[in-house]
Amino acid sequence: MGIFEKLKKAKQPAPKSNVGSEKVNEITISEAELRKTLKGFLYSEDLVEEMLPTFRKLYDGHPEFKEVVELIQAKEKELNNINEQQGYFNQDSNPNDDPEKTSDNTEDEEGGKDYLMEILESRYGE
């Protein structure tokens, strides 16, 4: 079952029964565990404090929210793994290259003529 199907299912109202309320009570997590989870992807202690009541209500009111948090944690781990790779962000070009030798130069290297300017002058004059 994909995440979108799970989110659709989560939007549907839960049937009111004693079995559902027991399930909600099983999923609640401790305050320390929730803080640790939030710190893992929010990074800032101030932001964790600000968002803690919201995440607590989501955990308590929607048992499916745990799956959303697990998805966020998985993506955060992927990002951290990419950042830890040594060669991932290496610069391909040499920063000491002469910018005059790039393809943005308007003069043709073969004849030394600026064909764009010749065309513009012939059409519109000087």
Core attributes:
126 residues, mainly alpha
What does this structure look like?
Residues 1-23, 83-114 are annotated as: Disordered. The protein is an all-alpha fold. The protein has a domain at 3-84. It has helices at residues 3-11, 18-27, 31-42, 45-61, 65-84, 115-124. The longest helix has 20 residues, at 65-84.
Topology:
Blueprint: H1 3-11, H2 18-27, H3 31-42, H4 45-61, H5 65-84, H6 115-124
Helix pairs in contact: 3-4
The biggest sheet amounts to: none
The low-pLDDT segments are: 18-25
Binned, the helix content reads 55-70%
Q: Secondary-structure element sequence?
A: HHHHHH
The radius of gyration over CA amounts to 29 Å
Q: Structural class of the helices, strands and pairings?
A: mainly alpha
Q: Tell me the total number of β-strands.
A: 0
Strand percentage: under 5%
Let me know the average pLDDT.
Answer: 77
**End-to-end gap:** 68 Å
| C-alpha geometry | elongated
Give me the number of helical elements: 6
Summed up:
The protein is an all-alpha fold and 126 residues long. It has helices at residues 3-11, 18-27, 31-42, 45-61, 65-84, 115-124. Residues 83-96 have a biased composition (Polar residues).
